[in-house]
Amino acid sequence: MTAPVAPLAGPGPLIDVHAHFYQHGSGRATWQALNASRLAAGDRIGVTWHVGSILGTWGATSPTYFQSPADTVTGNDAMMAMQAAEPERVRAWAAVNPNDSEFALAELERCRRQGAIGIKLAAARRASDPVLDPLMRYAREHHLPVLHHVWQGRQGPVVAGQDPSDATALCNLAARHPDVSIVLAHIGGGGDWSGTLAEVPNVPNVYLDLSGSGVDRGMLDQALDAVGPGRLVWGADLTLDTGLAKLWALDIIGLAAADREAIRWRTAARLFPAGAFPGLAA
Amino acid sequence: MSVVDVSALIGPYPFRHIPHPEPETLVQVLDREQIDAAWVGHLPSAFYRNPREGNLALYRDLAPFRSRLHPVPAVRPDWPGWRVEFARAVDAGAPAVRAYPVHWGLGTGSPPLRFLAQACAEHSVTLVLTVRFEDARQRHSIDVAVDLPAATIREVARARTGARIVVVAAGRSLIEEVHWGLTPTERALVWYDTSWIWGPPEDDFAHLLRTVGAARFVYGTGWPMRLAQVTRANLALLPHDLSAPALADPMSWLP
């Protein structure tokens, strides 16, 4: 009998609030291997729950950040199937394109009834746009957090293939909907994260996810200075190796055990609907 | 076999604050990460037109730590008197020198780069080429240097100088473009550091170990720009059949 291997990130619960999975229509022949690799690496790190989304077909049949309704449905269907197949380690964000509000609201309701625990918005419309408001009201009504893709930048970013939101736009959204918890995606995901950190301190319903391939020294320290440990949540996005490196970095920068616990899982567990993570009580 | 970080630097970065980029801190990081030694460059020198003063600062600042921190000065081969700077590096026992072709406006096929590679080969000094310091998506508006093109690296490697080349901060696509764009003889003189290669779920690092081979890689962290834990994390997350890959040992190259 083989002795259990200690998780690389140490003991205790760990929620990845920013996971992605793939589906058969993603245009990548290796989509199943990618999903399996994420789960296997998560097991070795000690990820207790992957909260994931699938952005349509990842560009195969409509743009990743401007998903067609049909691709939105197939992506969410695949994500819900993933949750159903992995009920003890996967939870789903329902990813929608907000431009067709009527469709998006119906899709959110469909996914919520199937067990989705949050709303994923990417870059089909800037967060400052009132077009998002019906979805935010839906989020408040059902106590669903919103994970919003953000391009870290200070001057209204222009990015090919996206209508990206920066922290200014996201804070505008958060101010319009103060009762909704909004996760500002991947401060390590590209762009000027220091500009983001300067924007968010006084917007209490904005939480920062630490995911992204960026592992700049100073980023974690400055994020802690900006919002404190209670508004940071761990995630990995497309690179679990950088996620693990950040967890190891958090272990050595002098955080109290309770603060590390907050970043690893406790704050995330509080943002989602009650019972989203069986066995974890925030 | 020793573990040597080939992509460490000291000194401040012009476009954002870097916490504690001093050699004393680097030694503590090496201890924590169980790294035996580091090849250390001087970060501000990449942005100097003439890196001479930066190199002198590097030698001075590393002097108390020379058993573990080995200076890797910058040598700009289109600058008047560069051979004096190169000779100073040789005299100082530098295992390598750094060059920044994009920052210095040296294009693909630049004769000065070839001359520098030739000098490196003649003195058994490794040439370190840096692809980038920061992700292109986050650079300061006045930091207009693009990532080092793979074509520039290929041209240096194809110059038949016999120089060893270490490419730092490269990702999978650039590594593959360079490696598969060289003859087997040319490939045998090019190595890549591990600091900027993605792990799971894309598993770029595992893929490269299987295709390009572990012997073409050297340990690198990119400290103080990047968290030094990244390479350790990437190694820890390798599939079981690739665990503990035999990376190249750059200290074995020393004469």
Q: Helix count of chain B?
A: 9
Number of helices of chain A: 9
Report the structural category of chain A.
alpha/beta
Named at the architecture level, the CATH assignment of chain A is Alpha-Beta Barrel
CATH homolog superfamily of chain A? Metal-dependent hydrolases
Spatial strand arrangement across the major sheet of chain A: 1-2-3-4-5-6-7-8
Helix content of chain B: 25-40%
Shape of chain A from CA axes?
A: globular
CATH architecture group name of chain B: Alpha-Beta Barrel
Q: What's the number of extended β-strand segments of chain A?
A: 8
Summed up:
Chain A has nine helices and eight strands.
Your description of this structure?
The complex is a heterodimer of chains A (282) and B (255). With 282 residues, chain A is of the alpha/beta class. Chain A has a single domain, classed as TIM Barrel (Alpha-Beta Barrel), CATH 3.20.20. Helices cover 38% and strands 12% of the residues of chain A. In chain A, helix 2 runs parallel beside helix 3. The mean pLDDT of chain A is 96. By secondary structure, chain B is α/β, with parallel strands linked by helices. Chain B has one domain: TIM Barrel. Helices cover 31% and strands 14% of the residues of chain B. Chain B contains 9 helices and 8 strands. Chain B has a 5-stranded parallel beta sheet with strand order 4-5-6-7-8, covered by helices on one side. A 3-stranded parallel beta sheet of chain B has the order 1-2-3. The longest helix of chain B is centred in the middle third of the chain and has 12 residues. The mean pLDDT of chain B is 97. Chains A and B meet through helix 1 and helix 8 of A and helix 9 of B.
